[in-house]
Structure formats: C-alpha cells, structure tokens
Specification:
Low-confidence stretches: 1-7
Number of domains: 3
Mean pLDDT: 86
Radius of gyration: 29 Å
Strand content: 5-15%
Shape: elongated
Helix content: 40-55%
Length: 455
C-alpha cells in the first residue's frame, strides 16, 4: 500500500476533484461524521478493495474515542509516503485504486487496490504468441476492474444501463470522455434504448440487435475478449459495451480494416508487421478470388494461361465427370464441413479427426476421379487463407462472399467475377458503422477532429 499526504484548503478542493470524476458511475463520495470530526472520502469502487477500506478507515474512525486523533492514526500506518504535486496526479492515483482521504486540511492517499486477475481467464478465441494472454470474465464488475487497472485516466467514464427485456441485464458503456464523439454516444444510446426484443442473452445477441441493418453481410461492430484490444480502441475514441454474464465486449464503431489487425502486431518491427499484414490481405484475396479464378479460367477462358499450364490443368481433369464449377462447389462444401466439425468436436480430438478425415476423403476423391489434383491444391490454399484473418466474424463474411462470387463467375465467366468484385466494393463503400465510413483507414477521435477544425 502507498500513502501520500499533503495539506490543502477544504472543502472546495474535495468538491473540485469530485466534479472532475463525476461523469463516471463508479465514483463514490462519502463524508464520515462522528462527534466533531469530519472525514471526506473519494474513490472508485471498481478498483478499491471495499473490505480493506472498511477495516482500515471506516471502522477505526467510528471506534476511536474523542481523545484519539484520527489523522495521526492515518499517518501512523506503515505505508510509503509521497507528496502529490497537483490535481492531475491525485486524480490519476485515484484511478489506480487509491482512496482519497481528507481530514481538515490534510490529504492522504491510501492504496487499497482491488486486483481481480484471479477471476479472469485466458483469451481463447483470439490467441497470440506475444503480449498479454488475459481475457474477460462473465462478471461485468470484474471486467470493469480489468479496464480500470490498465487505463489510468480520469476521463475514463463508466456509464451503466439496463436492458428492458426479460433478462433485465446490466450493461455498461465504457469510453474516454475526452476522445469519444458526442454524436457517436447518442447513436449507441438510442439503439440500446429503442431495442424491441424479448430476451438478450449476451454480447452476441446485443451486437446483432444493435445493427440497424439485420441482413448486413459484414459486421459493423467487433466482439472481443481481449482487454488490450479494448484499450487500444478506447484510446482512439471508440465505445466499449460490456454485458453482465458475457465474457465478450462489443467495440463500436468498427471499420473493415479493424478486423485485419492482430494485437501482437505491436510487438514486431515495422518490416515484420508490414509483411504479416500483406500476407493477411493476400490471404483475403486468395480466399475470395481463387475458386472463381479457377472456374473462370478452366470453363470459359483457358487461353489466358500459358499453353503448358493449360495442358496440365486439362490433363488433371481427365476422368472428372462434371464441369469445374460443380467440382469447386463440391470441394468447398467439403472444406466447410471439416471446418465446422473441427469447431464442434472436443479440443482433444478435433485436430486429429479433421486432419485424418481431410486426408482420407481428399485422397479417395482424387482416386475416384471425383475431383482433380489441382482442385485439391486450390481448395487447400483457400482453406489456409481463410484462417489468416484474425477475427472470426470477418472470417464468416469472407466465406459467404466466396460463394456469392463463385455464383457470378459460374454464370458469366471472368466478366461475372469482375462485376461481382465491383459490386462488393460498391457495397463496402456505401456501408457505414454507427454513421462512420466502413472503409475509413485512419480513425480520428474527437480531439483530432477539433484540431482539424481549428486549423
């Protein structure tokens, strides 16, 4: 525990500090009175150990006799001391789990930090090699504590709300009051308050119902279980939505490029990150385009290939009894079945079962002339490329786009593939996420927009 003392004029100072922190819901202001003694307390209940506060401060205050000096008792506690230099330092110390204690003209900061690390779990859906492995828990109080422990700014605001459905679940909007755009907050609050649903069981349900376009192909908000991703987005002015009973947070708004970022990118050099991100976008292109290119070239315009390659492709398809587009659909559906099976099976056997199943069925399909060797290579590349995308929500959207583009190519050849891609780009250009452009590459928070307006 740390203790810091200084002398200053009450009660205006106490009121001024409390006003700075009042926008957040977890701020607690208390005044203890006993006989002629008055003590002011200011703290954040989400990061303070209430048991220690009761035992160290509250109970001794009321149990001491009139002759005993409570200020001397506080000073006698065997903690380290330091002198705060101003309001900002005091506010930051409060956000770190310190309790502000004012006795007459004396200020004491007691560190009674509540650490909820034992109640959280490891991130499962977004694993990384480098960086923290911590994930969220199903308790909204624990998750707020995790956020507070890692974001020590007085402008961090916790705004509690309650869903008006059968569950009456508690939710919390978390954001940096200095960086978030007021219009964004209005939109999110309105969508939550105007929900007309019978039951919301978790963050996934709330994310779906908050989307004003129910048949949107691409996600407009991001589900995450990683505190580091939450803090990264909150620091640039986005809003975090926590739902009690759910180990995932909703990040809003999001752009297309947010789904292509991994949190461990920050731990590599510029050149390594550039290569990794290039590979991700190359994998995205391969996942969407490669099956359509195969069908378009083999069925409609084989002359675009070199003669040797065209002959190799044609030779590999000798004995295959149906057109290439049926072959592609058959193999893609087979891969989708393997993917779903790997997700539903227990972790101990999923990898073995899907690997063995893929090898046996793939080899048998080639030997039975149901597909060609080149088709197996194409589908394998597509399957690998699919999982290069870091966020599973975008992964599913890309898989759907792959089939839609394949239908266009089957009907109209390579021209249909080009038209399908143009249509997809137009769709993304016209799409928005909570009134923010979906294809915006660089996010501007409130402070940056104000600076741009002033200049």
């Amino acid at each position: 525990m740390d203790e810091a003392t200084c002398h200053i004029e009450p009660p205006a100072y106490f009121t001024r500090l409390a006003t700075r922190l009042e926008p957040t819901a977890d701020i607690v202001k208390k005044t203890l009175k006993s006989r002629d003694r008055v003590v002011h307390l200011l703290y954040l209940k989400s990061v303070v150990d209430m048991m220690q506060l009761q035992e160290i401060v509250v109970k001794p205050f009321y149990e001491m006799s009139a002759e005993q000096n409570f200020a001397e008792y506080i000073q006698s506690l065997p903690y380290e001391t330091k002198m705060p230099t101003g309001d900002e330092e005091v506010l930051i110390e409060i956000t770190k789990g310190n309790v502000f204690v004012m006795i007459d003209k004396q200020i004491t900061l007691l560190e009674l930090k509540l650490v909820a690390a034992n109640a959280v779990q490891e991130a499962i859906m977004e694993p990384t090699i480098h960086g923290p492995q911590l994930g969220l828990s199903e308790s909204i109080e624990t998750n707020i504590n995790v956020m507070r422990q890692r974001y020590h700014k007085p402008s961090l605001i916790i705004e509690p709300m309650q869903l008006e459905d059968a569950s009456n679940r508690d939710i919390a909007l978390i954001y940096d009051g200095e960086r978030v755009k007021p219009q964004l907050l209005k939109i999110i609050r309105k969508r939550i308050l105007t929900l007309e649903v019978e039951l919301v069981q978790g963050s996934s349900d709330l994310q779906y119902y908050m989307n004003n376009k129910k048949y949107s192909l691409f996600p407009t908000s991001l589900l995450t279980e990683r505190p580091d991703r939450i803090l990264h987005n909150m620091a640039v002015g986005k809003v975090i939505i926590l739902v009690d009973g759910s180990p995932h947070a909703i990040i809003a708004p999001t752009t297309f490029f947010d789904f292509m970022l991994s949190m461990e990118d920050a731990y590599y050099s510029f050149w390594v990150v550039s290569l990794i991100r290039f590979l991700r976008y190359a994998g995205l292109f391969t996942c969407i385009m490669l099956p359509s290119i195969y069908v378009g070239v083999t069925s409609y315009t084989p002359e675009v290939l070199r003669t040797e390659l065209a002959l190799t492709v044609a030779a590999s398809r000798i004995g295959v009894p149906y057109p290439s587009f049926i072959e592609v659909f058959f193999m893609l559906i087979f891969i989708e079945l393997l993917t779903e099976a790997s997700m539903r099976l227990p972790n101990s056997i999923s990898a073995t079962a899907t690997t063995v199943g893929g090898l046996i069925l793939g080899t048998a399909a080639v030997e039975a002339a149901l597909t060609s060797n080149i088709m197996v290579i194409v589908v394998s590349l597509v399957a690998i490329s699919t999982f290069v995308i870091p966020i599973s929500e975008m992964n599913y959207a890309v898989r759907v786009c792959r089939f839609l583009l394949l239908l266009y190519t089957t009907a109209f050849g390579l021209a249909g593939m080009v038209l399908g891609m143009l249509g997809l780009l137009l769709y993304l250009v016209n799409k928005d996420s909570f009134s923010e452009p979906y294809l915006r590459m660089f996010w501007k928070n409130r402070q940056e927009e104000l600076k741009a307006d002033d200049s």
